[in-house]
């Protein structure tokens, strides 16, 4: 039986609809949205005493259900199909005496002005507005004009729609320009893997008298039927908000039918501010054999730990899901600037939403476990927030790590999952003569972490490897009598501070392009300048070029730890200009013949990485590499002479000797930091 039209224009033809309803017979045809789903929204806007007009009624049961439920009885239904009107008159008959069915074209209605309090449209606008041709838009304008004419001031036009972008945009623009208030409801329970994947929306246009000269628009969206409306500032933002919900419904439908081959990431935003509140990643583990109790789980990442490899990378999350033993694991990252009421509050807030991401075959009412590390949500305290013309928005925050350790971090918000700088915080020590706290006394509040910086501890593995690279310096003594070091990129200052404090013979020059970073390092990371530590506020490219022209061969070690602000390139450290051949030659010029150039390379683009390595090999005849396990970072040690080549045994001996010299009596040293271990994985390219 052929019921579909041959062209979209037939949707506006009475002949087509007569044939459609004759062939379909008495079976009701519902475009979308069952009455139980629509009822909560309709109850808000349809009162029992209202006079209601249903345009394009077809043989839908909606009017009958509204009547039978006592929502409203004074209902007039119109349609251009004589066949369906006669069918509906026969079906309702004397059972619903106050409801009528009339053969009428909604583009030319016979009703007097201001005759109805409600006009209800279920799919009729969608059927009419099939394209944006001039003739189609003219018909829609006539439809809207007729609806406006027959509605009283204060009356509501309720349009049930799938909210295609061009349909929603046309309706919103027309009625908002007429001074009407426009509100869009998402129908709860629609788009849930049933007949239609896409959710159903109800446009609620409330008629007001147009005020001459007023350009104010009131546009609102209600994501779910119980939510308070949220104001949006433009038609474009309203259409975008609806589109986001449609994409989410499509995603949930796909996730509910088949396992996802690739990890899916989405943000859930705060209802009031619209800012991201949770970031969810859906991870499926095909290797896990499904049973009733291991199909689905939610993992809450403690605050501040979302940057760790296990939680912040696809490979890490895949390993987490596999080791947790669940077929589908949804990891949940908590955002800064948001307040959370503990694990129980998060579970209550998310329990309904995460079930929309459940895997296929999950039994109804299955209890889904919420997991975490240590059973809590972690601690994050934002200490400082600012913006810089060069670095953009950034924060300094204290977070709780494993056990009782706290860390201070610098985060650039344009890349919020990357820790720019990190330092461990020291636990407070009693003053001389001060008694230690009794065990039963109140401990340090989790919201008040310690503030003193532990300068003996290098948090970043790539910093540890960069310092270990000093073992490659020429000469028989692993600890030279004098050491001139140039560090390009300050961040929080941990790397130059460590070199300055542990190499007492070192003179360190730091080049930093952003003066805000010097303020941050000084105020929040314990950094300070002195006779052996000087910071130069300058572009590293210009500073090195100037030195190459004026004072060549003056540094024993040059270290680049510079992030790139260009996120479109597959290399986030350093900026591409720092690895161009002409600039690398200038770096070589200011390096002593037996010196070492240490570069932190973070490159996800395999071809780009290979070209960078080829460029380095062209300039430096001796090139070592050290990959940082579990991270993208690769530390490159470049030397200007091939004569400095050392075998692994010699490197190990020099590393032990250097570490022994640095570990002076009474000086703190992180026992986990073993220079020899950092060099064991070094290989020559």
From TrEMBL:
<protein>
    <recommendedName>
        <fullName>eEF1A lysine and N-terminal methyltransferase</fullName>
    </recommendedName>
</protein>
<keyword id="KW-0511">Multifunctional enzyme</keyword>
<feature type="domain" description="Methyltransferase">
    <location>
        <begin position="50"/>
        <end position="171"/>
    </location>
</feature>
<keyword id="KW-0808">Transferase</keyword>
<dbReference type="Pfam" id="PF01564">
    <property type="entry name" value="Spermine_synth"/>
</dbReference>
<comment type="similarity">
    <text>Belongs to the methyltransferase superfamily.</text>
</comment>
<dbReference type="InterPro" id="IPR029063">
    <property type="entry name" value="SAM-dependent_MTases_sf"/>
</dbReference>
<dbReference type="GO" id="GO:0005737">
    <property type="term" value="C:cytoplasm"/>
</dbReference>
<dbReference type="InterPro" id="IPR051419">
    <property type="entry name" value="Lys/N-term_MeTrsfase_sf"/>
</dbReference>
<dbReference type="Pfam" id="PF13847">
    <property type="entry name" value="Methyltransf_31"/>
</dbReference>
<dbReference type="InterPro" id="IPR025714">
    <property type="entry name" value="Methyltranfer_dom"/>
</dbReference>
<feature type="region of interest" description="Disordered">
    <location>
        <begin position="427"/>
        <end position="450"/>
    </location>
</feature>
<feature type="compositionally biased region" description="Basic residues">
    <location>
        <begin position="434"/>
        <end position="444"/>
    </location>
</feature>
<dbReference type="GO" id="GO:0008168">
    <property type="term" value="F:methyltransferase activity"/>
</dbReference>
<dbReference type="GO" id="GO:0032259">
    <property type="term" value="P:methylation"/>
</dbReference>
<keyword id="KW-0489">Methyltransferase</keyword>
């Amino acid at each position: 039986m052929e019921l579909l039209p041959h062209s979209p224009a037939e949707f506006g033809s009475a002949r087509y609809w007569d044939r459609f309803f004759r062939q379909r017979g008495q079976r009701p045809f519902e475009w979308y949205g069952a009455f139980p789903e629509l009822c909560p929204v309709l109850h808000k806007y349809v009162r029992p005493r209202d006079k209601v007009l249903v345009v394009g009624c077809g043989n839908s049961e909606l009017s009958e259900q509204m009547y039978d439920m006592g929502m409203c009885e004074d209902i007039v239904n119109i349609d251009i199909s004589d066949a369906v009107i006669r069918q509906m008159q026969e079906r309702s008959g004397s059972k619903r005496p106050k409801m009528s069915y009339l053969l009428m074209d909604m583009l030319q209605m016979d009703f007097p002005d201001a005759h109805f309090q409600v006009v209800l449209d279920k799919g009729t606008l969608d059927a009419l507005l099939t394209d944006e041709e001039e003739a189609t838009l003219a018909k829609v304008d006539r439809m809207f004009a007729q609806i406006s004419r027959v509605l009283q001031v204060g009356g509501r036009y309720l349009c049930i729609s799938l909210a295609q972008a061009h349909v929603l945009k046309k309706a919103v623009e027309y009625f908002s320009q007429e001074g009407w208030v426009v509100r869009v409801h998402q129908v709860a329970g629609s788009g849930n893997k049933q007949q239609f994947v896409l959710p159903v929306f109800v446009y609620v246009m409330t008629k007001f008298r147009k005020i001459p000269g007023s350009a104010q628009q009131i546009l609102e969206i209600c994501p779910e039927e119980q939510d308070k409306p949220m104001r949006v500032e433009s038609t474009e933002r309203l259409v975008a908000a609806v589109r986001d919900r449609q994409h989410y419904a499509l995603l949930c439908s796909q996730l509910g039918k088949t396992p996802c081959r690739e990890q899916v990431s989405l943000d859930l935003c705060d209802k009031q501010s619209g800012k991201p509140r949770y970031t969810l990643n859906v991870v499926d583990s095909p290797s896990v054999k499904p049973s009733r109790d291991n199909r689905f789980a939610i993992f809450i990442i403690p605050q501040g730990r979302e940057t760790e490899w296990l939680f912040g990378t696809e490979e890490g999350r895949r390993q987490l899901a596999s080791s947790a033993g669940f077929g589908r694991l949804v990891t949940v990252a908590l955002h800064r600037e948001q307040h959370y009421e503990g694990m129980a509050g998060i579970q209550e807030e998310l329990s309904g939403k995460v079930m929309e991401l459940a895997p296929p075959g999950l039994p109804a009412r299955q209890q889904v476990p919420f997991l975490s590390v240590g059973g809590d949500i972690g601690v994050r305290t934002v200490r400082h927030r600012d913006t810089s013309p060069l670095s953009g928005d950034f924060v300094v925050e204290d977070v709780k790590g494993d056990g009782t350790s706290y860390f201070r971090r610098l985060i650039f918000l344009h890349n919020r999952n990357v820790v720019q700088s990190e330092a461990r915080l020291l636990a407070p020590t009693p003053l001389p003569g001060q008694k230690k706290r009794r065990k039963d006394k109140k401990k340090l509040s989790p919201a008040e972490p310690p503030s003193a910086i532990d300068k003996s501890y290098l948090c970043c593995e790539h910093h540890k490897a960069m310092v270990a690279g000093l073992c490659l310096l020429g000469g028989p003594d692993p600890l030279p009598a004098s050491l001139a070091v140039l560090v390009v990129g300050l961040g929080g200052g941990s790397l130059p501070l460590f070199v300055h404090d542990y190499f007492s013979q070192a003179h360190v020059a730091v080049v930093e392009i952003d003066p805000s970073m010097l303020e941050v390092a000084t105020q929040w990371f314990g950094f300070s300048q002195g006779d052996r530590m000087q910071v130069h506020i300058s572009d590293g490219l210009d500073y090195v070029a100037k030195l190459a022209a004026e004072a060549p061969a003056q540094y024993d070690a040059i270290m680049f730890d510079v992030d790139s602000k260009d996120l479109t390139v597959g290399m986030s450290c350093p900026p591409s200009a720092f690895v161009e051949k002409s600039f690398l030659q200038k770096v070589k010029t200011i390096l002593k013949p037996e010196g070492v150039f240490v570069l932190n390379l973070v490159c996800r683009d395999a071809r780009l990485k290979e070209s960078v390595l080829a460029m380095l090999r062209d300039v430096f005849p001796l090139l070592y590499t050290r990959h940082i396990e579990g991270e993208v970072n690769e530390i490159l040690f470049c030397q200007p002479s091939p004569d400095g080549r050392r075998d692994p045994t010699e490197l190990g001996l020099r590393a032990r000797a250097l570490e022994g010299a640095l570990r002076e009596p009474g000086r703190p040293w992180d026992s986990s930091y073993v220079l020899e271990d950092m060099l064991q994985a070094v290989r020559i390219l």
